[in-house]
């Protein structure tokens, strides 16, 4: 008897640089992930966002949960830079998180550098 396929939330329990990105996903830690990612101090999580989705406070709840360990949040907004809404910027400021929106490619490169420098960085990458 076949067991049904179990769908689990994507989670990698550690920090790792992004090896490559594009074609709707990312490679890291010798693995590939299709879709967007949250790169947090507690690990790497699949993020249910696609290019063009609204950047709302609700979409960043996992980031807020780890705010004490994050100084900088890089937001890769897709192919193009999109400003963060005022209410989202205000929430980050309340939590003393510096937020910086940029294209996903620029965010990946910046994240890798800051991670290598052992900075308190997190990232939200929308897949391109």
Could you give a short description of this structure?
This protein is of the alpha+beta class.
What does this structure look like?
The chain is built from three helices and nine strands. It has a six-stranded mixed sheet. Strands 2-3-4 form a three-stranded antiparallel sheet. Helix 2 links the parallel strand 7 and strand 8. It is globular.
User: Numbering strands along the chain, what is their spatial order in the largest sheet?
Assistant: 1-6-5-9-7-8
The CATH topology is what? Hypothetical Protein Mth938, Chain: A
Please indicate the percent range of residues in DSSP E strands (runs of 2 or more): 25-35%
For the record, the CATH class is: Alpha Beta
Q: What is the number of domains?
A: 1
* CATH architecture classification name: 3-Layer(aba) Sandwich
Order of helices and strands: EEEEEEHEHEHE
The count of β-strands is 9
- The rounded Rg comes to 14 Å
Question: What is the distance, rounded to the nearest whole angstrom, between the alpha carbons of the first and last residues?
Answer: 39 Å
CATH superfamily, called what? Answer: MTH938-like
Total of helices:
3
Q: Which spans of ≥5 residues are poorly predicted at pLDDT below 50?
A: none
- Mean pLDDT figure: 93
Q: Approximately how much helix is present in the residues?
A: 10-25%
Q: Characterize the quaternary organization of these chains.
A: single chain
